[in-house]
Structures are given as structure tokens and as C-alpha cells.
Amino acid sequence: MTDLYRRLGELLVQRCDVQPGDLSPETTFERLGLSSMDLVTLAMAFERELGVEVDEDDFPPDWTLVEAARHLEKRVAERPNPLERT
């Protein structure tokens, strides 16, 4: 699994009161029963850690944790490099 997948699991356990045994790559956000506040908390944590804009819409209820991690990886890869000149 990727680092972002692992970090997603850690944040879900630490900040959203999810039990580690409830997590698997195919677990959906809907199955976890997260509130909109949980999703905002998760988005804010990733925004701070990754340096990209993230909001609760980046975690659709029917997405699996693997899908969300891939989406976040793509967002990070697409962020502009502050050292590049335009």
C-alpha cells in the first residue's frame, strides 16, 4: 500500500474515531459512517500535510480508501512546484 493510503488510515483512526479493524483497501467512506464534520476534519488534515487544497468533496461516500489515496496522490503530483519559474 502507498504512504498516502497508510496515512489516510491513521487519520481516520486518530481523528474520526474509526476502529483499525474497520479499515481495508475496499472500505468505502459510506461504510465507515463518517459525518460531514469527520470529512472536513480529514480534508483539513490532508490539506496541511500535503500542501494542496483538499475538501470533503474529495472523499465521496462510494469511494474506497484506495480510490481516495490515489486521488490524493494525483492532486499532490499536479501541484505546482514553487521553485519553477513560469
From TrEMBL:
Phosphoprotein: present as a keyword of the record? yes
Q: Which residue numbers delimit the Carrier domain?
A: 2-76
* PROSITE patterns in UniProt: CARRIER, PHOSPHOPANTETHEINE
- Which UniProt key words apply to this protein? Phosphopantetheine, Phosphoprotein
InterPro entries documented for this protein: ACP-like_sf (IPR036736), PP-bd_ACP (IPR009081), Ppantetheine_attach_site (IPR006162)
Q: Gene3D superfamilies given for it?
A: ACP-like
What Pfam families does the entry give? PP-binding (PF00550)
Report what the protein is called.
Acyl carrier protein
Which source organism?
Glycomyces paridis
Starting at the broadest rank, the lineage of the source organism is:
Bacteria, Bacillati, Actinomycetota, Actinomycetes, Glycomycetales
